[in-house]
Amino acid sequence: MTAPDAQDARCAEQPQPARPEVVAGTTVDHLTETYQAHYRSLLGLAALLLDDTASCEDVVQEAFIRVHSARSRVRDREKTLAYLRQTVVNLSRSALRRRILGLKLLSKPMPDMASAEEGAYDLLERDDLIKAMKSLQRRQREVLVLRYFADMTESQVAETLGISLGSVKAYGSRGIAALRVAMEAAQS
């Protein structure tokens, strides 16, 4: 035998120290037994916290799913039920929070909806405005669009178009006057 082979043979002959058995956590079988034995009591716990049966069943089912997916972290099998109870309580709290948030959102009054007739009038007015805008001089249209639709200040419009502040004011004033005339003509 060579030196490494002799050393391997000696190691194999020596008794190895006993290793403590590592508990893998809650087994699926144990969780199934816990489900069968304690489902109704966990449902009762959820019923004390929530008010409708469907939510209680959902919470308990979700608790079992969560404990099942984290079963390797539940080292002591005797604590499985405690973990399930705590999970049911936490999920019930979350469900109540979601309900409260939903009620807060629903309690705000909905804005009045425009009738179909009003929507049609708005569409006609918008079409009239677009036609009137197209009838303006190019510079007047540019000034009005930048000033009122893009919410720019007069100085920003002047800088954007490369014209003076006085020109922006003049084009804007004349453009609004021309729009007013065109809109009145379209409405009559």
Automatic annotation (TrEMBL):
<keyword id="KW-0238">DNA-binding</keyword>
<keyword id="KW-0805">Transcription regulation</keyword>
<protein>
    <submittedName>
        <fullName>SigE family RNA polymerase sigma factor</fullName>
    </submittedName>
</protein>
<feature type="domain" description="RNA polymerase sigma-70 region 2">
    <location>
        <begin position="35"/>
        <end position="99"/>
    </location>
</feature>
<comment type="similarity">
    <text>Belongs to the sigma-70 factor family. ECF subfamily.</text>
</comment>
<dbReference type="InterPro" id="IPR013324">
    <property type="entry name" value="RNA_pol_sigma_r3/r4-like"/>
</dbReference>
<dbReference type="InterPro" id="IPR036388">
    <property type="entry name" value="WH-like_DNA-bd_sf"/>
</dbReference>
<dbReference type="Pfam" id="PF04542">
    <property type="entry name" value="Sigma70_r2"/>
</dbReference>
<dbReference type="InterPro" id="IPR007627">
    <property type="entry name" value="RNA_pol_sigma70_r2"/>
</dbReference>
<keyword id="KW-0731">Sigma factor</keyword>
<dbReference type="InterPro" id="IPR013249">
    <property type="entry name" value="RNA_pol_sigma70_r4_t2"/>
</dbReference>
<dbReference type="InterPro" id="IPR014284">
    <property type="entry name" value="RNA_pol_sigma-70_dom"/>
</dbReference>
<dbReference type="InterPro" id="IPR013325">
    <property type="entry name" value="RNA_pol_sigma_r2"/>
</dbReference>
<feature type="region of interest" description="Disordered">
    <location>
        <begin position="1"/>
        <end position="20"/>
    </location>
</feature>
<keyword id="KW-0804">Transcription</keyword>
<dbReference type="Pfam" id="PF08281">
    <property type="entry name" value="Sigma70_r4_2"/>
</dbReference>
<dbReference type="InterPro" id="IPR014325">
    <property type="entry name" value="RNA_pol_sigma-E_actinobac"/>
</dbReference>
<dbReference type="InterPro" id="IPR039425">
    <property type="entry name" value="RNA_pol_sigma-70-like"/>
</dbReference>
<feature type="domain" description="RNA polymerase sigma factor 70 region 4 type 2">
    <location>
        <begin position="127"/>
        <end position="179"/>
    </location>
</feature>
